[in-house]
Amino acid sequence: MSSNFSLNLTYTTLSLRRDNMSRRPAEWLTERLAEGVGVVPVLGSQNLITTGDTPGAFIFEGDAARDILGTGVQEVLLGTDDHKPVFAVSVDEAMAAQIVASTDGAAEFMDLRSVGPLLPPADAHILAHARGMAYWHARHGFCGVCGAATESRYSGHERKCINPDCGISHFPRTDPAIIVLVYRTDVPGGACLLGRHARWPFGMYSTLAGFVEPGETLEQAVSREVFEEAGIETTNVQYLASQPWPFPSSLMLGFHAEATSFDISIDDEELSDCQWFTRDDLRGMKEWLDAKEDDMRLPRKDSISRWLIQRWFDAE
Ligand SMILES: [Zn+2]
Fold first, then answer.
1. Which one of 117, 139, 161 terminates a domain?
2. Ligand 1 centroid to 153 CA: how many Å?
3. Which of 70, 230, 259, 308 is the most exposed place for a label (fewest CB within 10 A)?
4. Are residues 40 and 62 in the same domain?
């Protein structure tokens, strides 16, 4: 681990204007569409990514974009780029094959997670937004209150139950999750607490994380999760940054917290191991992509976990 890692968080670079997307009158959209349109295709949980040396978002424009618009199973107005509306369009397999063919090999559908850290920040943000909205639509075709079908409204920013006796509106949701680097200051140079799940690649350690439960504050969620997973008591819970994490639908809320107890007792249903790591330990860990099978490795560079670790590492 070196200290020249950029502290810019992947998926957080706002690239389109998103204000009032759900409240624009139809005339507003018609006027904008006359000027141009961008289309970001989505196939299930996959985005269309360019296949050249540097991956990027493949965004259709002009006639090619108009040809796709209206053919998908779901459309969402993501925002505007210099007044031009940009839509995420969810397509089926047949349409996806046509779309890929139309790029002459310049793009293919792939999981954003496989290329996220390599994308230009603005592209990563657009694709994450498109993927998150597509995921929400795909899982909210039916009303959670009465079970009737729902239909998309307001350019994909609402789904309304079609049952006239119910008629409730459902809005895109994101699930808050805390993620925390716990540190200790009672040993020379300090140390941080990282754990691993058994299903992760060998040697991969990360910060602790968990969903916020109804009726608790973020700070309470941090303390509860750390105690549940590692048996460590914490204080000085400090919020630092957030990151949309549409894998599938979380908002990660990043914290540092100071340990007040130090004996680790793991919940083995949550973690397979958890340890204190010094900065020297971290220096000996490999980057995700460079790690060999039996190397200890750091979390991926596009994750807020890595960002929280790096911030602690650099603060020496
Ligand atoms: Zn309903």
1. 139
2. 15
3. 70
4. yes
